[in-house]
Amino acid sequence: MTDTPAVDGNAVARIAAYAANLTYEDLTDLTVTRARQVVLDTLGTALGGNPTRLGRLAADYATTMQPGNEASLIADGRRTTVEGAAWANAVMAKHLGMDDAHRTCGHVAAELVPLALALGEYKHLDGRTLVTALAAGYDTIGAIQPAVNEPQRVKGLDQKGQSGTLASSITAGVLLGLDEEKMAHTLALSMDMACGTEQYVYDSGLCDTKDLLSGYAARNGIYAAKLAAFGFRGPPGALDGPYGYYLAFGDGFDPVYLNGIGNRFVLSETGFKPHAGCRYVHACVDATQELLKSGQPPLDDIVSIEIGTYEEAMTPNFRVNYRPENVGQAGFSLPVAVSVVLGRGSWYREDIEAYDEPEIRRLWPLVTVYM
Asked: What integer pLDDT is reported at residue 9 of this predicted model?
């Protein structure tokens, strides 16, 4: 059977051609350095996520439901299938909320790095191939996520499970050595696996979805690449077609979205979170820590706290939650963040878990948030 080639020049074909032909030698020194940092950072976050309830549950599920000897679980020692390891390690890497953060592409490493490590281990690939695959994945999400970011936000759609899946498929395709045609089908097939909403921010603490979405993306990226390698085909218009991703999750396609492909490396632009929790509270955390440099005031003497911020940091309203019911909700809340940092000096997982201590809780209603 002869495969139908991907349509030349459309969005899927252009991204696929770029990824299939990208080499390690094409990358800038900063991109290579940042790739190393991203891998180490993700390993660290996964190590921290491993002993938690969700980390253990994910590891136990992967080894029970997907038994195999293809790849390792981080900090665990047990082995499972490639898909099982990528899924479980991605869940662990996401759980602490300390994964990387790109200004427009969001959190990417928790999806791509566990996938790359699992496939790299299984295929006995070298570090240069892994770095190249990560760069291709980041560039894919850089061509897609900025175009849909605002519409997704309004609709409550989740970036990790959606554009994260598309990026994961390209990273998997590079690691499997797919040619342009197979790469195009990989990306196209992954579009219909992109999923997820952010309802978990309202039901935080009552569900595990936030972290499972990273696992879905890592697993589905591998699945799409394997399907394409086996001969399955995806719709050539998966991105820019009449019912493609750009319109389904955004406002439609504009060729300008692809201008960055081959001209910049999104991986080199990603950053690392100095604090846990939602990155929209981090400016507030930094400002509070700066105030504390002149000495910590007695908490009983505080009568009011004002936070001047920007629209994205206080909308939707879960970001200004004065009555969080659990640690998950507390991690998104500006009033809680400033209260915790005033009391404890930092904003790591163990600090967020102390959100409900009486002297900290007294501060919550004293906070006014405004633009």
From this structure: 63
370 burial type by CB count under 10 A (0-12 exposed, 13-18 middle, 19+ buried): exposed
pTM of full prediction above 0.85: yes
Q: Is 336:321 a contact under the CB 8 Å cutoff?
A: yes
3-state secondary structure of 255: helix
Greatest Cα pair distance, the chain, in angstroms, is 77
pLDDT tens for each residue of 34-85: 999 999 999 999 999 999 999 999 999 999 999 999 999 999 989 999 999 9
Cβ-based neighbours of 144, under 8 Å, separated by 6 or more:
163, 166, 167, 239, 245, 246, 257
Give the three-class secondary structure for 367: strand
Residue, of 133 and 98, whose pLDDT is higher = 133
In the predicted structure, residue 5 carries a pLDDT above the cut 50: no
244's enclosing H/E stretch is: none
Contact 209, 189 (CB under 8 A): no
Q: Cα dist. 293→20, 103, 290 in Å? A: 51, 28, 5
DSSP 4-34: PPPPTTSHHHHHHHHHHH--GGGS-HHHHHH
Nearest to 162, CA basis, from 216, 201, 113: 216
Q: List all residues 6 or more positions away from 53 whose beta carbon is below 8 Å from its beta carbon.
A: none
Provide the 3-class DSSP secondary structure of residue 352. Answer: helix
**Any residues with CB less than 8 A from the CB of 157 and at least 6 apart, and which?**
151, 196, 197, 198, 249
Residue 210's Cβ-side half-sphere holds a number of Cα atoms within 13 Å equal to: 22
Is 32's pLDDT higher than 50? yes
- Is 342 strand, coil or helix? helix
Is residue 262 very low, low, confident or very high in pLDDT (cuts 50, 70, 90)? confident
| Full DSSP string of 109-158 | HHHHHHHHHHHHHHHT--HHHHHHHHHHHHHHHHHHHHHHHHHHHHHTB-
Q: At what angle do helices 11-21 and 163-175 cross, to 10 degrees?
A: 40
